[in-house]
Amino acid sequence: MKKRYLLVLPILLTLTSMTGCKKTTTDLKGDPIEGWDPELEYKGDLDVFMYIYGQEGMWRDVGSGNYVASDIIDGSQALFFAAATEFKKIYPKININVISGNGLGYTPSYTDNLQNYIESHNQKPPHVIHHVSDVPSQLESGLIADYSKYTDNFPLYDYISDDLLSRFNYGGFQAAVPYGVFPMGIYINTHLVENIYMEEMPAPTAEEWTLDALDTIISSAPTGQNGRAGVIQLYGEMTNFIAPTIYRNYVDGKEVDLDTPEVVKILELENKWARDNAWFVPTTNGSTKHPNNTEWDNWEIGKLFAGDYAKVQLDAPYNIGSNSQLAVLEGTQDHFDYYPYPAVDEDGELTLGTMFGALTIGNRCSLDATGKENCTAEDRAAEEAAAYFATFMVSDPRSIKAASEIQWKRGSDTDSEIVTGAIKGFPVLKKTDENGQPYALPSSLEGVTDEYETQMQYFYDAYPTYTDEKPGMAKVVEMYGNGEYTICGSAYYPMNIPTATGGTQSVFEEWNARYNYDAAAGSATWVNAVRAQLSTWSDNINSVTERGWSYLEEQMRSYYVLPEDWNPRDRVL
Prior knowledge:
Blueprint (H helix, E strand, L loop, with lengths): L14 H4 L25 E7 L4 E5 L15 H16 L3 E9 L7 H11 L7 E3 L4 H6 L21 H5 L2 E2 L2 E2 L2 E8 L1 E4 H7 L14 H9 L9 E3 L4 H7 L4 H5 L9 H16 L3 E4 L2 E4 L11 H6 L3 E4 L6 H11 L5 E4 L13 E9 L15 H19 L1 H9 L1 E3 L8 E3 L30 H12 L8 H11 L14 E3 L5 E3 L2 H4 L13 H6 L2 H26 L14
Helix pairs in contact: 2-13, 2-14, 7-10, 13-14, 14-15
């Protein structure tokens, strides 16, 4: 495994060494950039197995140029088509096939379709895997391969953010590359705050943007009064990021502590908001309309917010794209901003969460009965080609530019609109080079001097409601670029552990179900009922956390050749 410790971060190719790069064209190799694109021995098909909502089927050789916009009906699908088109120019003898395993009605299930693929391909998984399950679960089943076996040959890889990569690194085993990075904060309708309710919008600083300031904004709009509400609904993840002893402790390897004044303060605010200010409220078995909500159903949340009917949206950070689009359609894009999570008080600090997906590569070199890798030269060549395609797709300027320009059809209906661009989130690249300076890559467009900012501009172009021209979003972008964020969740950490009865237990299972506990959030007894459980729930979280890491290590040792002193908690890049 490649060892590149986080404390020492040399970038293998400096800008000085890049100035001599030049393009070469050959019949065999297409149009690679010398010294940048690796020489790949593999020739043939690379299958991408992915999730496309409501779609089941296969699109062969999607980089061939033989597909039109109406053939592509999903933004994530469009990303693969765009990347494959550029990849084909470099490696014309590699064909990227896209397979969606998620049919209408989900029968057979996505998992069943994946298993059917493996069984029909001599027990070999797909070459590239998108959204099958969380990365720890893929590791626990031996499904995926280690990128670090190949990345020494990929200069591009060294420009991907070490911090993002580290979330998929388990003792030096690089399980995935990140893509689709979305900030996790709070949507604010600043137009309602400042022009309708005549309130002063706090600046996005820890001194002004506090829980009390958020409460002032939400509490001044009772549900249904003048057809509006303070907030759409509660969002449990907010507390996990704001309270310093929950996710931040978990990520740092410290014990999680729910029984703190900060957590109790947020519980009391959530109780009040659910009772008086939300369009939708928790029940003991789900969610329902607030008694004063006689107009909106939960499938209309996007339209509700874009139409100026709520001051705040706490949830759905992954919907920043659709929220932006809906606001543009409503003509309200100037009404909104996106803020980091507030400080607990003026002595606290702002918090930004970050979420992103993973591209994994199928493990084609599984262990035989003697514990040795059962692997051919072609298997290794296929893994290497898959690893470079995934790396190329999420970060190379040629791929990201193509993603910003590709045309696709939003949905499978005959009257669905044709849209341009399929940018998915913030750049995964480092903001600056090893000298702290902006940089261009050998594959950057001519004239580009700052590749990170160029890719960030694609985000602004795709999501015009949320740009750095607005103070909250500018702070979010600043925090992201400086690495001032928290990343936590089952996508990155072993939080789902099998039980003896065949089910699974989640690390935060009891705590994350708190809104439905007792008589549910918003009831008179809820805060005290939850407070009485905080100490017990903390102990359970810490106990299950240890089991999760132990299970991950046990399973990985059964599927992979690993050093005796290997520890999955280590982040070794």
